[in-house]
């Protein structure tokens, strides 16, 4: 089959439109719940796979295709474009949606039989289709409409279990932040479109028209700041992150995987599209701003994650951390571009793009794993878990792959992208700017701190959840999840491994993006020693071989296994040392709160912490109270610093405005009379 005969953009539009089929089927189908689930999610998986293939084809062939759709407003039709950048993000969204759709077959079947699932299936498909449309949009109108459909569909998915006040609060907060972000993006597009046509008409609403203009610095700065704030609100960048740890945990886990795995990346796509493709020329301080926000998000995100004992909330805060790491790469790339260092700019952007797909895969895997755990235990609190490795061996192994990947340990994918980001810091030449000379080494050290804290956090997650004994009060009957859920997780885990051991092939494939944006590529250096060695920018200073590291780890594990198992008697199983107590029980194990206590003591001033210990009357000696109660509450300081004063002011104004409503007709007539007099005075 000649792939050059296939039009990627038409294929992408057709497959994205196919998401309507499951929606229609669910609406007209009867009460056969199992058939509905199988057909709806199989169609979603197939459509996602085809759309992802269209993206791969676009990047591989280096094609840029455009279409004008016969829909939209009379003078403002919708424009669609599939180039290498949109193809790359189309591939990421499609690939994870494919895995999650397979996983969803088993996950949704596990819901209580009486729970209606039509709404979940309808908005799930609309959500994925809207993300594809955002990436494909080539004008401001289509982009914003797709953006709003994406936000609306995800709002209803967060509200799926609307019987809980926690879900309603999270959905409301998410919708408010999403619309604040959308308004800022709308204003940014308004500035760009207005400058494009001199504020005379609406023809500048297409991205093609904007690309043809060299924007004055002040207008470009206004558009960048507005758009960056709007996209940052969706991506969960600190201090716009407050909705994220509320909404992601309460959504169904297949939706959490998509929201954290790819919806946040759609916002990253928006930042890259506006900055590198439409505006193109910018001062260095834009990059410094992005770099600083990325560093703050990375460090604060992982610290907040360490403080959590709710498994899904912990993963949500890690999304803040990883978005920060992606922004570090983007910020560095902007700085290098403004300083006319295209090779370094390409390296930093490749690191950011590589971490984008890596985070999509391992975070999708971890949320699917969390969904499997919640599915089996009906618990999100890690302090009520333990010893799950004995009941869920498949899930534990796949979840461990996600833990290693997000901790940036070889041979999995997280290591490669963070290593590339370090290379962008360490290989940068002397920069003629004092602030940058301070920020670059500081950024490298903060990134190293982030990696160490992330590894500690996932030691806690895996150890508390899967090892030891059950810590909860009542141990439920836990069984392994079904095969479709395991297959979905296994695909994501396998992708993490492939991205970790074959980075050179991946970078050679995606290099066309930086070549088009900066006119510089890494291929000439990263592949100088073939597919075996990754050697960015300078082969004499840094190199990494994923295949050799993988083979070395496999050999060490195999030799160790053989040494221990060839001869019987090498392994002796003895009781765990119990510090002199008679018998170990669940109260003597480390839990999530106690594990993070040392970190809490060091960084506690960064959180709003309330900690109380109350002891019941002693029995014989003060060291042996009958009972002790421990209370710990950790709040996000950004909520108290920024959002609570705004909420208080809004409530105050609402109460003041409410006093105007007395229900008395003569007061309303007075209001009308005063208004008329005021208007007449103005005229």
Which helices and strands, and how do they pair?
Layout: H1 8-17, H2 20-28, H3 33-61, E1 65-73, E2 76-82, H4 84-109, H5 118-136, H6 140-158, H7 165-197, H8 207-211, H9 217-235, H10 244-250, H11 253-279, H12 284-306, H13 311-338, H14 342-377, H15 393-406, H16 413-426, H17 434-466, H18 483-501, H19 503-518, H20 523-526, H21 546-565, H22 592-595, H23 597-603, E3 608-615, E4 628-635, H24 637-658, H25 665-682
Antiparallel strand pairs: 1-2, 3-4
Describe the sheet with the most strands.
2 strands, antiparallel
**Which range best describes the helical content: under 10%, 10-25%, 25-40%, 40-55%, 55-70% or over 70%?**
55-70%
Rg? 27 Å
Number of helices: 25
Q: Detail the poorly predicted runs.
A: none
* Overall mean confidence score, pLDDT: 88
Beta content comes to under 5%
* Overall geometric form: globular
Order of helices and strands: HHHEEHHHHHHHHHHHHHHHHHHHHEEHH
Q: Which structural category fits the helices and strands?
A: mainly alpha
The total strand number stands at 4
- Give the distance, in angstroms, between the N- and C-terminal Cα atoms: 73 Å
Written description of the protein model:
It is built from 25 helices and four strands. The protein has helices at residues 8-17, 20-28, 33-61, 84-109, 118-136, 140-158, 165-197, 207-211, 217-235, 244-250, 253-279, 284-306, 311-338, 342-377, 393-406, 413-426, 434-466, 483-501, 503-518, 523-526, 546-565, 592-595, 597-603, 637-658, 665-682, and strands at 65-73, 76-82, 608-615, 628-635. The strands form two sheets. Strands 1-2 form a two-stranded antiparallel sheet. Strands 3-4 form a two-stranded antiparallel sheet. The protein is globular, with a radius of gyration of 27 Å. The mean pLDDT is 88.
